[in-house]
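Sequence design from tokenized structure. All designs in this work follow the same two-part layout: the structure record, then the generated sequence. An example of the structure record is given first.
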């Protein structure tokens, strides 16, 4: 039996009849289970889901956590019979996922935010035994290039949880905008969160084609309270928020706010053009201390074990012509500028380690020696992920050719699609992605923690556009990260995805129609 659930469960068998939820249906189990049922099923059904079933109704939803019955985290078994629904799980996350599965087994009308009359709230009788393939099931959202307020970020996280993603990688700083409030350095958001204008159209490398800008000041930031609220909202949904503070490249917004972080005496405004910047941080002790202060405030807000420090696309042009950088390279006894970038990453990694955290960096960090605990996010060719695993680093697989949801969804790109970042990534290709590269030897496979979809937002200015780029492709990614490879079947996925798009529509989420 193939339930219309995404990601597809590991094991599933059906009995043919169904359970019908009624106003008398009772709910019993851990508090989080009960409140999740009320939150997810209450608005559309109008049912109260009290602790006792009505006298004439034998029906009950029961949830329990029984670790002894399972051998992996996040596992659950969901049994639906004519008289009862019973979810039993290894842990709170497993129980949460059992309810997410249950939601998807219901008529899609259950996803409506207000009372729907005349729908029989039927759930097919099934027995589902399920657990994820990978521990890291992530989605990255770039909130620097375009800013999405905290209320939207929470909605985005809700959608992640529906698809059993468990990591929200929050890209918070970049050349075109610094987003987190830092109390010690208020100019980061007073100045760094605002750019004078935004590029129109694609950023051609050929400066002969004039670049056009919209002339509209743009920006925004998150207060610390807002970030705390997002973290706790995500935690309630078993999503860990991994914040990213970029260094030493993609840091122009910080340099605009505090020019002493940069390499030139003249001030540079916050970036307005996409691409790789030549302005990067300097390597002074004071700059490292500045970032440690920033991280100290961030760590207080974000309990995640992992903290992302960027490390990608640090263009060396400015360092190569800066005498003070040459001095610094010599002072530290390093070979060249490249090694200086490695030095900065190691220093910051050590700092995080003293605070009990682990550093994640984009795969360029492999160009230098790394601390043993450094975790690599492989965004370029998979050969870098393989190299990282061979060097005994944990890896999160995000090769752009399979996971960059800012790429076009149709082959003819601009002719049929709204402006996007370039590159072509159709639904089927996302589905075919396997985070474990075939070329990886068995002994290194355990280094692959999982994978992640990336939503860079240079060309994604609003929530509707996020949804257009995310769905259905994020559904394919969710299945890739959860379902055993042997159970994946694209034809069957497409059938379920078509149904699932109707669920998303009830939530006001309009993805790209499936071809
Ligand atoms: C490369 S991926 C970047 C981002 C861009 C993206 C556009 C990575 C680590 N750096 O800064 O937004 O390409 O696809």
């Amino acid at each position: 039996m193939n339930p219309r659930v995404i990601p597809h469960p590991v094991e599933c068998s059906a009995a043919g009849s169904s359970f019908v939820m009624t106003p008398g249906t009772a709910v019993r189990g851990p508090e989080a289970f009960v409140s999740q049922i009320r939150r997810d099923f209450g608005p559309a059904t109008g049912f109260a889901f009290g602790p006792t079933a009505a006298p004439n109704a034998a029906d009950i939803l029961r949830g329990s956590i029984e670790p002894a019955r399972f051998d992996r985290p996040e596992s659950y078994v969901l049994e639906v019979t004519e008289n009862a629904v019973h979810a039993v799980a290894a842990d709170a996350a497993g129980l949460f996922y059992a309810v997410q599965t249950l939601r998807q087994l219901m008529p899609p009308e259950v996803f409506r935010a207000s009372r729907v009359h005349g729908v029989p709230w039927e759930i097919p009788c099934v027995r589902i035994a399920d657990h994820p393939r990978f521990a890291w099931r992530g989605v990255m959202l770039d909130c620097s290039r375009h800013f999405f307020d905290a209320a939207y970020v929470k909605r985005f996280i809700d959608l992640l949880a529906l698809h059993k993603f468990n990591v929200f990688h929050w890209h918070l700083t970049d050349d075109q905008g610094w987003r987190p409030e830092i109390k010690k350095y208020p100019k980061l958001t007073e100045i760094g969160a605002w750019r004078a204008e935004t590029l129109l159209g694609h950023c051609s490398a050929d400066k002969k084609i004039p670049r056009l800008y919209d002339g509209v000041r743009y920006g925004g930031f998150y207060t610390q309270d807002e970030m705390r609220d997002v973290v706790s909202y995500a935690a309630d949904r078993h999503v860990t928020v991994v914040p990213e503070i970029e260094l030493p490249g993609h840091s122009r917004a910080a340099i605009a706010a505090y020019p002493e972080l940069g390499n030139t005496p003249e001030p540079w405004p916050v970036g307005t053009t996409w691409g790789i910047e030549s302005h990067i941080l300097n390597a002074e002790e004071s700059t490292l201390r500045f970032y440690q202060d920033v991280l100290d405030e961030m760590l207080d807000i974000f309990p995640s074990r992992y903290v992302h420090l960027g490390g990608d696309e640090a263009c060396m042009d400015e360092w190569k012509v800066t005498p003070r950088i040459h001095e610094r390279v010599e002072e530290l006894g390093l070979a060249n500028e490249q090694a200086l970038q490695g030095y900065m990453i190691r220093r910051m990694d050590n700092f995080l380690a003293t605070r009990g955290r682990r550093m994640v960096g984009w795969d360029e960090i492999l160009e230098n020696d790394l601390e043993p605990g450094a975790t690599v996010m492989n965004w370029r060719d998979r050969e870098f992920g393989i190299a990282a695993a061979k060097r005994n680093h944990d890896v999160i697989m995000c090769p752009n050719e399979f996971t960059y949801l800012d790429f076009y969804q149709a082959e003819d790109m601009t002719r049929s699609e709204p402006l996007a970042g370039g590159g072509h990534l159709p639904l089927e290709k996302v589905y075919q992605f396997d985070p474990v590269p075939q070329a990886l030897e068995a002994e290194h496979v355990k280094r692959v923690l999982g994978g992640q979809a990336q939503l860079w937002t240079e060309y994604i200015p609003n929530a509707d556009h996020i949804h257009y780029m995310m769905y259905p492709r994020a559904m394919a990614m969710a299945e890739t990260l959860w379902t055993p490879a042997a159970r994946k079947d694209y034809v069957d996925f497409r059938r379920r995805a078509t149904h699932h798009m109707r669920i998303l529509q009830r939530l006001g989420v309009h993805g790209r129609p499936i071809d």
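The radius of gyration is 24 Å. We note this feature because it recurs in several other targets discussed in the main text.
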